[in-house]
Amino acid sequence: AFSVALTDTRLCVGPNREDSVVKYSSVFVNLGDGYSTDTGAFVAPRSGVYSLALTVYSDAGTPGATLAACARLRQNGRTIASPSENNLQDQEDSASALLVVQLHAGDRVDVALPAGCFLCDNNNHYNTFTG
């Protein structure tokens, strides 16, 4: 089991020109050390059914500014969920995904930040990744 958040301090990541792996640095639980803050990936220690949850949040910071809060939850590089919010009606957006997947020992699960999207967080832990 693991549960991580983007950061404990004010931080925004993106937007980037290319997709990039999100590296969550605030660790709540990391039983078995399956999640790596260095790579941003969870590696399944054994085969089984896993519950995965991802919440993304962003704040454009200025009324009227546009943003896209989005991410891709990936299993071995293949997208399995893409929560996104891009309504352009306010300066804050969030989205979540919760799913159950079959993983094999050694499978890698990570979160990619698509080009053009960005995430913002602080000690309220709006951006979380849990399994």
UniProtKB/TrEMBL annotation:
Pfam families: C1q (PF00386). One of its GO terms (cellular component) is collagen trimer. It is found in: Secreted, Extracellular space, Extracellular matrix. Keywords: Extracellular matrix, Secreted. Residues 1-131 form the C1q domain. InterPro entries: C1q_dom, Collagen/C1q_domain, Tumour_necrosis_fac-like_dom. It comes from the Eukaryota. This is C1q domain-containing protein. It comes from Cirrhinus mrigala (Mrigala).
